[in-house]
Fold these 3 entries.
Entry 1:
Amino acid sequence: MCVRTDGWRLVFSPILFMAIVVTSFFTYMTTLGHPVPLWGMPGKVNDMKVIAIELVEPKAIYVWGYNGGDEPIAVVLPWDQEQAKEAYEAQGEAGEAGVPLVMGWSEGEYVFHPAPVEPLPEKE
């Protein structure tokens, strides 16, 4: 018995195989809690409450936080000296103000900033 390898099977089989490989790779990464790269997904993380940041100088910026869900997610950004400096300074500002650090999408890149301070309730 021979499997036919002509026509649409010749084109569709490699495409299906690559789709399965890519899907399996991302499923594996997210299931085991590995940081997910954000390249190719601009704006996916918006106003994420940051729990922790780790700056690994020649490699990447690792960020853990809540992105609107009940469970934290881990993401990785490519290393950028300016972005790392911005994240470090924003983390210090957020700590001084006593508010959480937020990571958002603005003007084509991810930015870090302290969350806005909520006003106190009015006295009655």
Note: DSSP finds two helices and six strands in the chain.
Entry 2:
Amino acid sequence: MKETHLRAIASSLRYVEKHLVELRELLTKEAPTYEMYDYVDDLGDEYRERTLATIEDILSEVRRSKQMLDFGPTEMSLRQEAESVLSGVWVVIEGIRPKSLRGYGALSEADERTVAEIYRRLLEAQNNRSGG
């Protein structure tokens, strides 16, 4: 198999593993607390058990595929992960600039000032990171 194929497969398997492990954590531990939304535990025991069994089956296949294709562990830099997440946050923050929101229709002057203040404060918080 070509190296490009192997890299694509490995990348896909890492994505699957990462998200399934995160979902397993969410289903087996207390849900994290957020400002913008609350998790509602509407799963029921049967659904939770079936979902966890599915997660384990898929993770088992990820392990089997890793062995079959002789993939070694990939070192993941926590700094790189942090920078990646913060870069994604930056892109999302840019999407709430008043200018960016014009695609949804005009804002009143008061609303534009409010959104500009929200954007400015988020931008300031992002730019205040030390050691970046």
Note: The chain has two domains: 1-74, 76-132.
Entry 3:
Amino acid sequence: MTKYLNEELVKNAFDNLRAKGDGKLNHERSTAIFVALSFNAISHKTNEQVLDLSPDSDLGKYHRDLFKAQYEELVAIESGKQQKKYKQIWEFGVVKESSKSPSVKLSSNFLTTRLKKASTMMTALEYPGRPKGVPLLLLGEEGSGVSYKAKHTKNWFQNIPTVLRHAPTKTPLIDLALLVFRDVELTDAKTPKDNLQTMIATRFTQDFSEWWIERLEKELIFRTDRKCLEKRSYRKQKTITFDVEVIPDSERLRKKSRKELVDIILRLQKEIRNFKRGIGDE
């Protein structure tokens, strides 16, 4: 029988990770965590600590394809486009629909903007830039020896709790694990806690997975639903329904380029002129 993690556990974890305050900053924090997790999964898969992410080399293109696929798996709520929109995790605790898929957003933002900027700098570019002093990746020449390459910072995973410190949860690493493996089919009849530990060790590098599993054990004492994690409770259906939040028009405008905004203004001015001519003709 096909089994997945208990839906209530996953939904509670998703809500537990939702931070209050600046929506843009929360979006940046969430994206940074997913980017770092994707990078580590690829590092584990390829057994490479430094990844070539050049858009011009065959190896770089291969790594970029792996990166986009891994990121899509972590962020997408439903596979493929639904009614011209992609449903995806916008930030921890928030699901939104976008005309761009998660992989396209990763390509245009991190794999292009961030890496291109790093390739022109004399020193390594730390990612993410916020919060300061807790980077998860180093990008660029100084960081890994060659432009368009990236690697983890030393003991990078110890910065994850700081990046997640605004979330109202005492168990951020348990909640993160439940969210990351929400759609992964369970292959045995162990408890959710045992399954999480197995899946972490299977997908991520040894140093990171050992640290994460140790954190899970320490956080268990703070869980009010500890019994649910330690008993055999699953769901049969892969899909979990999350409420979708509408992106405000103001947020859509902030994400547009200067040229796009100018085009919108010119189009509106034209419509106003046409409207005034219509009134004058009546």
Note: The CA atoms of residues 4 and 184 lie 6 Å apart.
